[in-house]
Amino acid sequence: MSGLGAAVIFLEVLPKVWFNTANMVMRSWVISSEKGNFQTKQNYFHCMGNHVTISAMTDEKEIEFLQDKQSFNYTYDKATLDSLREHFRLKDSLYLIAKDRKQFVAFCSTDRGWWEDNFFFIREILVDSKFQKLGMGKKLMTRCIEHAKKNGATGVVTETAFENYPMQKLCEKIGFKKWDNPQWRTGITYKLCF
């Protein structure tokens, strides 16, 4: 953990969480700098022999890590990355990335770029196939929802393709409800009101 300077490390008061998959234990740690902001927090996981770190992106250049990654039905191309960079700059945005050392594990982002006042939008969620069905997507989405609540949002919205059943199942598990979105009819919109 070199490079942390004068950071203080302490254990969050959270119980261990056992997921459905054997050998997966969440160990939640918070690293706080002198500023104590969310940007410096990280979570560490031990997952089937892997050490996964979840951290908030602090520099839009980190978004390049997603170049050419495959999502459910599209590739993170230049246009997608440009859009992510644009929304990264919005006030109160949160972009989380999970890595196993330097290997990509998962990504989730939320920002205020939704057309309804005071709603956050979960813009992207992507979990590498080797880490799916281990609770990683739920963990990242939950962190984004908590972030929206802490920033005074009325709720959170996300969209997915009609054929993206894993995302639909995840949204419903977390408590999102299908919402008839008058501006988007080519997929399903989910809304979670606080």
Quick rundown:
The chain has 194 residues and is an alpha+beta fold. The protein contains three helices and twelve strands, in the order E-E-E-E-E-E-H-E-E-E-H-E-H-E-E.
- Overall shape: it is globular
Element string (H = helix, E = strand):
EEEEEEHEEEHEHEE
What structural class is derived from the secondary structure elements?
alpha+beta
The domain tally reads: 1
Text of the CATH class: Alpha Beta
* Strand element count: 12
Mean pLDDT across all amino acids? 79
Terminal residue distance = 37 Å
Strand order of the largest sheet: 2-3-5-6-7-8-9-10-12-11
CATH architecture: 3-Layer(aba) Sandwich
Largest sheet: 10 strands, mixed
| Annotation field: number of helices | 3
Instruction: Supply Rg.
Output: 16 Å
Ranges where pLDDT stays below 50 over 5 or more residues in a row are 1-42
CATH names the topology as Aminopeptidase
Topology:
Blueprint: E1 8-11, E2 17-18, E3 24-27, E4 29-32, E5 42-47, E6 50-56, H1 78-88, E7 94-100, E8 103-111, E9 119-127, H2 136-150, E10 155-160, H3 165-174, E11 177-179, E12 188-193
Parallel strand pairs: 9-10
Antiparallel strand pairs: 1-4, 2-3, 3-5, 5-6, 6-7, 7-8, 8-9, 10-12, 11-12
